[in-house]
């Protein structure tokens, strides 16, 4: 096998801002694994929150042996971006070699479209209201919050999109006291879910707190090993392939989380359609699907995912899987 890694950049349609900072482009790693005359590929987005860089993840992949399979990969790389891109490339490689779709290889039902959230960038209340009004036709909006001035922003978004379902991502920006103060207002404004309100290192404070709006673990949940630490704190887990380390673990985490009584959200980093493609399989039947990365881009892969009124559709074989 030959493993090749490239650094690719996709321009964003607009500046994208969360509580941790702003960006104008998505920087990703594309992994291609060639066996004979067949090549499979996958994409990952290294994330500084987890001490990942393009360089560090590239080095992890460069250290892999030339003979590789998905089972062995789990002993070679930890959960994270590097394993994600390689795992997904191996799935794609097997699909191309066997002439079967990945969902068939994984023993899954044929996938269909899923309604996806559309993320509004963090901005002033006035600008967020304008963003919300522009996208009010979308059934599900996600708001990036996590600052001391969140209520005016939330009120503005609700005014701009009175009929949309709203979810919030606080990006670890609140305290338990802030969440408790905001909770009645979240109910009043029809918020359907709050993602990671507290820092992962401080989420013990969620135990015993009334949760009138479901609380979702993002930074607190990476793979199946995380589940033991979530009891009594969260109602939903956010599965991202760049956290789980690929499709293989993402599917296992989904099943394990549901077996323990959690609802499932499937999310993403800001990447191209190639990064979202495997996640569409995990998102089947999820409480919340948040795979809007390609909608935020000014440019995408040659065979991008289809987004329409039915949601985000599974990939064509020409893209992945």
List the helices and strands and how they pair.
Elements: E1 2-18, E2 21-35, E3 38-44, H1 54-62, H2 70-76, H3 81-98, H4 102-105, E4 118-120, H5 125-134, E5 140-144, H6 150-160, E6 165-169, H7 176-188, E7 191-195, E8 215-217, E9 236-239, H8 241-244, H9 247-259, E10 263-266, H10 273-282, E11 288-289, E12 307-308, E13 311-312
Parallel strand pairs: 4-5, 5-6, 6-7, 7-8, 8-9, 9-10, 10-11
Antiparallel strand pairs: 1-2, 2-3, 12-13
Helix pairs in contact: 1-3, 5-6, 9-10
Pfam families: MR_MLE_C, MR_MLE_N
Keywords: Isomerase, Magnesium, Metal-binding
EC number: 5.1.1.-
Q: Can you put this structure into words, describing what you see?
A:
With 321 residues, the chain is an alpha/beta fold. α7 (176-188) links the parallel β6 and β7 (191-195). It has helices at 54-62, 70-76, 81-98, 102-105, 125-134, 150-160, 176-188, 241-244, 247-259, 273-282; strands spanning 2-18, 21-35, 38-44, 118-120, 140-144, 165-169, 191-195, 215-217, 236-239, 263-266, 288-289, 307-308, 311-312. The chain has 2 domains: 2-99, Enolase-like, N-terminal domain (Enolase-like, domain 1), CATH 3.30.390.10; 118-312, Enolase-like C-terminal domain (TIM Barrel), CATH 3.20.20.120. The chain starts with a strand and ends in a 9-residue tail after the last strand. Strands 4-5-6-7-8-9-10-11 form an 8-stranded parallel β-sheet. The protein has a 3-stranded antiparallel β-sheet with strand order 1-2-3. The protein contains 10 helices and 13 strands. The protein is 31% helix and 23% strand. The longest helix has 18 residues, at 81-98. Pfam families: MR_MLE_C, MR_MLE_N. GO terms for molecular function: metal ion binding; racemase and epimerase activity, acting on amino acids and derivatives. Mg(2+) binds at residues 169, 195, 218.
């Amino acid at each position: 096998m030959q493993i090749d890694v490239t650094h690719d950049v996709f321009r964003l349609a607009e500046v994208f801002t969360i509580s941790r900072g702003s960006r104008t482009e998505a920087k990703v790693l594309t992994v291609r694994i060639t066996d004979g005359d067949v090549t499979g590929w996958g994409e990952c987005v290294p994330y500084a929150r987890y001490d990942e860089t393009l360089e560090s993840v590239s080095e992890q992949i460069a250290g892999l042996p030339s003979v590789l399979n998905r089972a062995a990969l789990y002993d070679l790389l930890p959960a994270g971006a590097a394993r994600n891109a390689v795992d997904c490339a191996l799935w794609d490689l097997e699909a191309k070699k066997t002439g079967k779709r990945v969902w068939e290889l994984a023993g899954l039902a044929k996938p269909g479209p899923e309604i996806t959230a559309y993320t509004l960038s963090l901005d002033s209340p006035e600008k967020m209201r304008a963003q919300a009004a522009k996208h009010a036709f979308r059934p599900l909006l996600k708001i990036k919050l996590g600052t001391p001035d969140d209520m005016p922003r939330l009120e503005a978004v609700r005014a701009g999109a009175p009929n949309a379902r709203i979810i919030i991502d606080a990006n670890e920006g609140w305290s338990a006291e802030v969440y408790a103060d905001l909770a009645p207002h979240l109910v009043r404004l029809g918020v359907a879910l709050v993602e990671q309100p507290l820092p992962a290192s401080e989420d013990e404070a969620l135990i015993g707190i009334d949760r009138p709006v479901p609380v979702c673990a993002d930074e607190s949940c990476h793979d199946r090993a995380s589940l033991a630490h979530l009891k009594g704190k969260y109602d939903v887990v956010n599965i991202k392939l760049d956290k789980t380390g690929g499709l293989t673990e993402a599917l296992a985490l989904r099943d394990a989380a549901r077996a323990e009584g959690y609802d499932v959200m499937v999310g993403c980093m800001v990447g191209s359609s190639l990064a979202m493609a495997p996640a569409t399989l995990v998102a089947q039947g999820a409480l919340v699907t948040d795979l809007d990365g390609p909608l935020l881009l000014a440019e995408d892969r040659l065979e991008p995912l289809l987004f329409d009124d039915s949601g985000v559709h599974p990939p064509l074989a020409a893209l992945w899987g």
